[in-house]
Write a structure and sequence with these properties.
Blueprint lengths: L6 H23 L5 H8 L3 H29 L1 H21 L3 H18 L2 H11 L2 H33 L1 H12 L2 H4 L19 H9 L2 H30 L4 H25 L5 H21 L4 H14 L4 H12 L4 H30 L3 H17 L17
Helix pairs in contact: 1-6, 1-7, 3-4, 3-5, 3-6, 3-16, 4-5, 4-8, 6-7, 6-16, 7-8, 7-12, 7-15, 11-12, 11-16, 11-17, 12-14, 13-14, 13-15, 13-17
């Protein structure tokens, strides 16, 4: 599809990408709901379960640049389809696991690779390449909102499934749902442009070398680390935290779903704002607001009302970091190797995700509460707001030169 694609074709592309991102994100964001029933059924520790999910997040980040480079070379469609198959195998393996070691293999290793192949970075990079620059911010916002819609839809359904038919059958249903990503990936046919004359096109090695020498790359990397820490901690542990406060399990599931619902608005707004306002200042504001929100939540009594209010407000800030981050990567480094370079920035997000998921379980096991983890999250927000301040935010069409 060219930059002058017909509106109907562009609409179909965006719709399929949004639905694919919705499934990919919704499925993996539901895993925190299985912590209580699976650890109780198998006599596992919370930290053991959390480590498997944290390993998934870490491996997702580690393999994201590799899948990104494959997508940059052959297009996103084949990568997402292959990831969907691994998704189904990984979730089915989780259902069959009797021991923590086997569960860690499927939930950590297999799912880690699957999530990076059929995940939001590859889908968003395809959208960014297939659409003109004037539509990219909006499209990335829609793709991110789609992933949030999946969280809003899939997580509560998984919660009802666990309560109604049990966690084993719910995992099998989720495995079947993962295969729906295969037909949805068909329009993501962003084949790379014809190879330029020798010596005139930047190679992947040159692009990565340039990124590693650029301070803005590292500012974005460590800022996205904080985003991952927040997202994984809340996704994996917010239901358990809510339950530890004496509230029903349904409130925890509803809280995760509400985050997803309100992030639809947050992501759409971030996509629109990133086309009109400085992306750098937008990111500073988002991370600062997260810290204020978490501090306020910790100071309030934990009731159903305060949990749901916190979830709604956090939803507005949840993945609203993605559109401005993608825009900054594209404007600093171009789109030829976007999936690769954004994949590396996303690796920072997933290292943070590993930290948030695992530390949450470790701190709970050691101290009996999540208080220390909430404090870490608040301090990390301040760090992220500060580290984004020096990021370069060039105007459209002023991407840094590919060669020194």
């Amino acid at each position: 599809m060219s930059d002058k694609a017909m509106p109907a074709a562009a609409g179909l592309l965006i719709l399929c990408a949004v639905l694919c991102a919705a499934l990919a994100t919704g499925l993996r964001q539901s895993f925190g709901l299985f912590l209580a029933p699976m650890t109780e059924a198998h006599a596992w520790t919370a930290s053991g379960f959390a480590f498997a999910i944290a390993l998934q997040v870490l491996l997702n980040g580690a393999t994201q640049p590799l899948w990104g480079q494959v997508a940059d070379r052959v297009g996103g469609r084949a990568v997402v389809m292959g990831g969907a198959v691994l998704y189904a195998l990984g979730i089915a393996g989780m259902a069959l696991s009797e021991g923590l070691g086997l569960f860690t293999f499927f939930a950590g290793l297999v799912m880690g690779v699957a999530v990076s192949a059929a995940g939001m970075p590859v889908i968003i990079a395809s959208l960014t390449r297939l659409l003109p620059e004037t539509e990219r911010g909006r499209a990335v916002g829609l793709g991110t909102a789609g992933s949030s819609f999946g969280q809003f839809l899939v997580v509560p359904v998984a919660g009802f499934g666990i309560a109604g038919i049990g966690w084993e059958w719910t995992l099998w249903l989720l495995a079947g749902a993962a295969l729906l990503m295969i037909p949805l990936a068909i329009p993501l046919n962003d084949r790379p442009a014809p190879k330029a004359a020798a010596g005139t096109e930047e190679t992947a090695k040159q692009a990565l070398s340039r990124a590693f020498r650029t301070p803005s790359f590292w500012f974005l990397f460590f800022g996205f680390y904080v985003c991952g820490l927040h997202v994984s901690f809340l996704t994996v542990h917010l239901p358990g935290f809510v339950h530890s406060c004496g509230l029903p399990v349904a409130v925890g599931a509803g809280a995760i779903g509400l985050i997803g619902l309100f992030n639809i608005a947050g992501s759409l707004a971030a996509g629109e704002i990133s086309q009109r306002w400085r992306r750098r200042e937008l990111l500073v504001g988002i991370y600062a607001a997260r810290g204020v929100l978490m501090a306020g939540f910790m100071a309030l009594p934990k009731t159903t009302e305060t949990v749901l209010l916190f979830s709604a407000l956090m939803g507005l800030l949840w993945l609203s970091t993605v559109p401005p981050t993608v825009a900054l990567v594209a404007r600093n480094f171009g789109t030829r190797w976007l999936a690769t370079i954004f994949g590396l920035v996303f690796f920072g997000h997933q290292i943070g995700g590993f930290s948030g998921a695992w530390l949450g379980g470790l701190i709970l096991d050691r101290t009996g509460s999540y208080d220390l983890m909430w404090t870490i999250g608040i301090l990390a927000s301040a760090f992220a707001a500060i580290v984004h301040m020096p990021v370069k935010d060039p105007e459209p069409g002023t991407v840094a030169p590919a060669r020194a």
